[in-house]
Specification:
18% helix; globular; 8 strands; alpha/beta
Amino acid sequence: MKFCWSTLTVRNLDESLQFYQEIVGLKLMKRYRSSSGLEIAFLGEGETQIELIQSTEDREIDVGKDIAWGFEVDSLEECMEFVQKKGVPIASGPFQPNPNIRFFYVNDPNGLIIQFVENM
């Protein structure tokens, strides 16, 4: 079995694409409107991707408080400085639970917890 993608329903696809492209650094692979009117975008390179879906319904989005997506970075300090310059507040951290890993959290435009991780 191979994990293909994780799907997130978003309030505003353009705002979410901007976050995942500019802040996280993911590449837009494809974007289209489905026959049912949903707007869909896939981001990421390689085997695992993120699917963002904007519904035509005007409804609340509940991403949950116990879910997070983690992304590895080369330098935690540089990443923290970068997200702050982009106006994205650090939600918590940085943390170093052991000598081999450090990380911090931000929230995406939909409230999803994003973890940036430096493996040492």
